[in-house]
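agent> step 3/5: call structure_predict on target 'Metabotropic glutamate receptor' (Portunus trituberculatus).
agent> reason: downstream docking stage needs a structural representation; sequence fetched in step 2, passing through unchanged.
tool.input:
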Amino acid sequence: MVEQLIEKAAGGARGLALFLTLEDTRVLLRAVQRAVVTSRLLRHQLVLLAPSTWGNNKEMLQEFEGDLGGVLVLRDGQRDVRDFIAHYRLLTPEKNTRNPWFTQYWRQVSGTGTKA
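tool.output (status=ok):
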């Protein structure tokens, strides 16, 4: 798998989505670490997209952070999404003056074609 990563990185790939167990991920990242040490991969060349279990395992992130370009952790945000939807439904062009494109978007979504 690391050989494929090296080939893809040489072709310009920058990101990798991982859906592995923590132990399999650790094995893969150790192989990436070895590839960096042997100059087959550049340090910080890859950015990883990982499931939320990584966010709860900061030790692993710290162990490999020097070899990665970054990690984007996907977290289950159902509670936050519901809060956002409730907030969004209360927005009107008059209440949302910070976003210059909101009025146009709001008109399209609401189908009113008017300001309010």
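agent> step 4/5: record observation. The chain has two domains: 2-73, 78-110.
agent> proceeding.
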